[in-house]
Structures are given as C-alpha cells and as structure tokens.
Design a protein that fits this description.
251 residues; five-stranded parallel sheet; Rossmann fold; 11 helices; disordered N terminus; 2 domains
C-alpha cells in the first residue's frame, strides 16, 4: 500500500478516480489528546481530493477517535508513512487554536449513554443540567486542589448535578451524583465521548476532556491551579455556573 505525504496532497489537485491515492493518519504515541487533534484532517483532505483513500493507524487511540468518521475508509496496519506526529509539531499552534476536534458517534452509542445517564440519576436531579467535572491533568501543575472542587459542588449542587470523570484511583470530589472513573481502554473512551456529548457543561483542568468538549460544542470553563475566591477568574466561574444553572432541562 503506497501512502502519499501531506505536502503532495495539499498542494496538488489529484482528483482522478483512476489513480486512487492513499494516506494513513494517526499518531504513534499513546496520547489521546494528540490523536484528537488529528480528527479534523480527514474532512479537509477529502475536500481537497475527493478521490483520496484515508486510513487511520491501528495503534494507540487512533481507531478510537476515528471510529464512525465518515471520511475514514479503513484501518492501516503496515503503512509506509503515517501523517500525524510531524504534522502536529509543524502546525502545533494552528491545530490547537483553529482546528476543532471532530468526533462521530453512532446512534447506538448515544442511546446506550442516554439510558446509562437515566439509570444513574437521582429522581430529584432529572431536571438539573448535567455538568461533567475533571479535576486531574497531566502533571501536578495542572491539578487544582481537591478542596477547591469540594467547595464548588457544595455551593452549586442544589442547582446543577455534577458527574466527575477521570481515571481509576483519582481522588473523588465530595457531593457528585456519579463518578465515572475508568481505565484508558478503548471502549471506555468511546463511552466518555458519548457522555460528554449529552452533558450541558464541562468544568475542568487543561487535558484531553477539554478537546472532547470542544468537539461537541459543550460550554466549558477551564480551572487554573490555586484559583483565588476573590480573583477575576473566580467571578467568571460564578457567572458561568449561574448561566448553566439557569438552563434547567426536562426529565
């Protein structure tokens, strides 16, 4: 299988179906966030070259983030070249600031997640907006104190239902309605995608869930470490939560 480099694809118009071209997209790392940042590429490449065949690399989170993507033609196991890490490094600023991740869910995934939410919701909370919280980032510098999160839930728990997402062994925030702690297995990541898509807001530190929220246009507030109750950011957080609380939902 011959794969063409990105420069050749973006700078030339190869639209003849008789000379089918192929490219493999993916990152060779095990970083979910890097894989998510590549998800807008298939649609852009197909727009440039409709005859292009696009495959996702089979390792890491690549098959997870590209699953159900209508612009992906299959999975490549032994490609000669992989478009991914080098592209992210060369276009890092543009990718992070301008290219919104694209995640596609199946109808079955969404329906199963709706039922999951219903089964784990308290009856008195069904009309409250659902806010996902994520308190742990990569590295201590990205982690807000757990006491800070406890205070937020205590203050807003009567108006908003909070579900904490994270990995196994994360510290639990007191007062959340449910704790979705899971491993990084592929099936669990897809469930997290569906859960985020059905939430009303996201509150957390800079990490891969931020990009998942961006993909589904979920209102997001990023928490900075050592946020002071009297700071401008704290006032903005209060305004953010007031707006979320005002948007109650039906049962």
């Amino acid at each position: 299988m011959e794969f063409l480099p990105i420069d050749s694809l973006m700078n030339h118009n190869h639209s003849s179906p008789s000379n089918m071209r192929k490219i493999c997209i993916g990152t060779q790392s095990k970083n979910l966030q890097e894989a998510l940042l590549l998800t807008p590429l298939p649609a852009l490449l197909k727009e440039k070259d409709p005859g292009l065949k696009i495959y996702s690399y089979f390792r890491g989170f690549n098959p997870v983030v590209f699953q159900a993507n209508p612009w992906i033609d299959g999975i490549a196991y032994l490609p000669k070249e992989i478009l991914g890490t080098n592209f992210l490094q060369s276009e890092e600023k543009k990718v992070k600031n301008q290219m919104k991740p694209e995640i596609y869910l199946t109808h079955s995934e969404r329906q199963k997640c709706k039922k999951f939410i219903q089964n784990h919701s308290f009856l008195e909370n069904t009309q409250k907006p659902l806010c996902l919280v994520h308190a742990r980032g990569q590295g201590e510098e990205k982690t807000a104190p757990i006491e800070f999160w406890d205070a937020i839930i205590a203050q807003w728990g009567n108006e908003i239902r909070f579900w904490q997402i994270g990995l196994e062994n994360d510290s639990a925030i007191q007062g959340c309605e449910y704790y979705y702690f899971s491993s990084h297995r592929k099936s669990n990541v897809r469930k997290l995608f569906a859960l985020m898509s059905l939430s009303n807001a996201f509150l957390g530190v800079q990490s891969s869930p931020v990009d998942i929220a961006r993909a589904f246009h979920i209102p997001t507030f990023l928490i900075q470490k050592n946020l002071s109750p009297l700071s401008d950011s704290s006032h903005k957080l209060d305004d953010f939560l007031k707006e979320i609380a005002a948007n109650s939902i039906g049962g």
